[in-house]
Structure formats: structure tokens, C-alpha cells
Amino acid sequence: MYPVSSSAFARGAGRRRWFAWLGFFVAVVALGCGRSMPAHALPAVQLEVLDATFSQPVHIAHAPGDARHLWVVEQGGTIRVYDLVARSLRSTPFLSITDQVSTGGERGLLSIAFHPDFAANGRFYVNYTDRAGNTQIVEYRVGPDRLVADPATARRLLQIDQPAANHNGGTMIFGPDGYLYIGTGDGGRAGDPWENAQNLGSLLGKMLRLDVDGGDPYGVPADNPFVGQPDARPEIWAYGLRNPWKFSFDRETGDLYIADVGQNAWEEVNFQPAASRGGQNYGWNRMEGRHCYPPGAECDPAAYILPVAEYSHESGRSITGGYVYRGQAIPELRGYYLFADYASGRIWAMNTEQAAAYVDAPGQQGAPWPYEELLRTSLRITAFGEDAAGELYVADHGGRVYRIVPAR
Fold it and tell me: How many Å apart are CA 400 and CA 51, to the nearest integer?
């Protein structure tokens, strides 16, 4: 691997000491003005490219029990395996379903999620749009070679019909509770014309929570918030989302971070504490970020769960959610949530210390959390990834994957 970009934002030590007593006051004032200010300077980091070229990578994952490999999802319908020790790409794909996938724009093979007991049962799940443009959640198993899937084991769990070609969501992750979480977009077009995000009878514009071991083809956890409620789909965990392209759990705390792609003005990060019982309404399409939608419309922000961070389209136009950094290579970055923008290539880091005081009730989120630019790149960042050790990676839609490392 070799470095391809770097950026340092450290300030002079004397200046930091002189202003230290003002830090809290400045942060509060800045937040009140809708801006984000750092609590302290971030470490200098750079990106190192992996020795491989991919075709439109959109997701990066690691498998439980395997510290050596990364799985990289290519939008066209192929999943590749990268060997972190040998620093090389395996020539045999892990899975190729290009003949089943519709691709282009926001469609394609979008993510992979490994069963928590993957090391024992070899089960994993993929999320893709089929030839008709509809979302498919399908289970597979590996073959005799644990690094190659057996296509004959395909078993569909769920199909979600898509009324338009965009806003397919796409990420799936197993939570700390062992259930499969699936992010779905609102069905597409602009402004959610079908009102899917606020409709509990639709699986679109939601966060879903499934028990893949509890039924055929799946079970619904008994404590899902809308179980038994008339006219509501029991699979729904949270709603009011526009296009939650990427979300992740903090591996240390179990907290959930959902990056929701905005409409014309605001990108946002939503937060859900590990102790949450679900049922949150994140506001779309009544709100975009912390603002009434459409602009000029009346709304009641106190009726919704507000994002903990947002940025306007002056800074970017399509948020790509990341992870809370829990690795060892950059100690000063531990506890920061990293996220990026696909259009501008900027990467930000947000201190998550305020998570301890978060109130998971409508309108009680307080001021936005401070964040700071970590890197400015020319990449079209589609995904972050986390390896078994907690080190972070980013995927560029142009074909490369990079590891985030300390600057040299």
C-alpha cells in the first residue's frame, strides 16, 4: 500500500492553551448558529490505497472469526475478497450474480451481511435490486472453500417492490442483539410523493429488524415496536427516513448511527442509543435535517427525533455514513464517528462524547454535536468499512479502496 492523500488540522499548542478556557463557550455559540466546531484538534491522517482495483465498489465488510480478509461489494453484482496479509485480491470472486442484478444509478448489488455465527454456519445475506428494479434480500452459504459462496444455496428472505429507480437504501448489518437491520429508502423520486416514509403500512423509508433464525423465511422479534399494531408492518424498527444509504453500530457501545441522504438542502446523521426500544420517527418527509420540508412549510420539530448532525449543500450533496473509530493505529481518533460526502469527497469526524447524555425522545436531542473536517479528497466515497481490528477503510466509486492511517 502507498499513501495517496493527507491532511493535517492541528493547531499550534500555544494557541490551543490560550483558548482552552473558551472552548466550551465557543462550541455552544457556534452550535446555536448552526455551525459545527471541534472540541480539540484532530490527528493528522492520510489514506493508503490497497493493492487492488475494483469495479464500482459500494460496500466493505469483514466476516466474524476472520481477521485476515475484507469483502468488497461491486455494484454490478460481484463480491471480491481482499487478503490483508498477502496484500492481494483473490482471483476467484466470492460471489457473482451479475445476471440477476439491475445496475446503474443507485441500483445494483448494494451490501453483504455475515451471520454472527458465520464461522460455524457459513451463512451470509446480500441486498440487491433485481432485473425488475425491486429489492431482494437473499441468504447464501459458503461452499467447501470458505472464501467462495455456493450459488445453489440461495434462499430469498424478503422482496420489497420499488416504485422508482432511486432511493433503494441498501445497507444491512447484524446488530449487537443478533438481529438483521436493513435500511430502506422511501421509494424514490423527489419529496416522497407516495408518502412511504411516514406510512407504517409500507416497508419503504424505514429501518427494518428481522430475526433470520426465528422463522421461514424469517421471524419478527417480539419486541419490535409495532408488533400487533393494526395497519403497521411488524418488521419496522424505525421510520421517517429518506435514503439511509449507510449506517453502522458502534462496536464498543452498541449505539446506532444512521446517515440519511437529503433532498435539496440538508444531509443528516441520526443517532439511536444501544438501549433504544425502537419506534423512532426521524421526520422525513415533514423535515429535512432539522428544517421543515418543503422550505417554508409549517412543521413541529418537537414531534420528531432530530438528527445529531447535519450539513448544508454548501459542503456536499450526498452523505456516506461511516463508523465510530475503535482501532488502535490512531489513538487520538478513538470515539469519533467518521462520515463523508460522495459529491465533495470531504471526510468529517464527530466526537461522540455527547452520546452519554442523549435523550431518545421526540424534540429532546438538544444542539447538534460538533464535528470537524478530517480530510479533503477528490474521491467519490461510496462506503466506509471496518476490519476485525476496528481499523477503517473507504471505497471510491472509481475503483479503489483505501485504509485510513496516521499521517507520515
Answer: 9
pLDDT by residue (tens digit) across 118-136? Answer: 999 999 999 999 999 999 9
CATH of 2-406, one of 3.40.50.2300, 2.120.10.30, 3.50.50.60, 2.60.40.1180: 2.120.10.30
- CA 243 – CA 46 distance, rounded (Å): 29
- Select from 220, 197, 222 the least CA-distant residue to 209: 220
CA atoms within a 13 Å half-sphere pointing along the CA-CB vector of 35:
9
Q: How confident is the model at residue 17 (pLDDT cuts 50, 70, 90)?
A: very low
Q: Per residue in 199-251, pLDDT tens?
A: 999 999 999 999 999 999 999 999 999 999 999 999 999 999 999 999 999 99
State how far the Cα of 30 lies from the Cα of 125, in Å rounded to an integer: 43
Q: What is the mean pLDDT of the chain?
A: 92
Give the CB-side neighbour count of residue 243, counting CA atoms within 13 A: 24
Give me the pLDDT at residue 41, please: 85
Name, in order, each residue with C-beta under 8 angstroms of 283's C-beta and a sequence gap of 6 or more.
240, 301, 304, 305, 306
Q: 465533495: which residue's cell?
A: 344
C-alpha cell at 44: 493528522
pLDDT value, residue 40: 65
pTM of the model: 0.90
pLDDT at 12 over 60: no
Residue type, 177: D
Cell of 143: 461452499
Spatial distance between the Cα atoms of 329 and 389, rounded to a whole number of angstroms? 10
> What average pLDDT does the segment 373-384 reach?
98
Distance separating alpha carbons of residues 64 and 42, to the nearest angstrom: 30
- DSSP for residue 211: B
388-390-392 Cα angle (round to 5) = 110
How far apart are the C-alpha atoms of 138 and 159, rounded to whole Å?
9
Paired sense of beta strands 287-288 and 291-292, if any: antiparallel
H or E element at residue 26: helix 23-32
Q: What percentage of residues in the chain have a pLDDT greater than 70?
A: 90
101: alpha, beta or left, given left = phi > 0 and alpha = psi -120 to 50?
beta
- Sheet of strand 319-324, all strands in order from the earlier edge strand to the far edge: 319-324, 336-341, 346-351, 371-376
